[in-house]
Amino acid sequence: MTALQHPGPDTGSAGPGPAGAAPHPRVPFPVVDEVARHCLQEEEPETVHIEVHLPGRPDPDRLTAAFVEALKRHPRILMREAPGPWYRRRYEWELTPGPEVEVVTFPEPGPDALKLARQRALADAPPLSASPPIRLEMVDDPEVPGGAVLFLVINHTALDGPACLRVLATAAELYGGQDNSPVAPPVRAASGDGPAAEPVDMPGGWATPAHVAPGLPEHSPGNGMLIAELPVPKRPKGAAYTVNDQLMVATALMIAHWNREHGKGARPMRITMPVDDRTRDADMPIGNGTRLVEVPFAADELVTGELDGDEMSADRVRDLLCRTAERTRALKALSRPQLGRGANLLTAPVVPVSWRAALTRGLRRAAGPWTSTTLLSNIGRIPYALDFGDAGRAHAVWFSAPARVPRGLTVTTASTAGRLHLALRWSKSLLSQGDGTHLRDLFEHYMHATELPAPEPDPTSGPTTSEGGDV
Question: What average pLDDT does the segment 411-417 reach?
Answer without folding.
Answer: 96
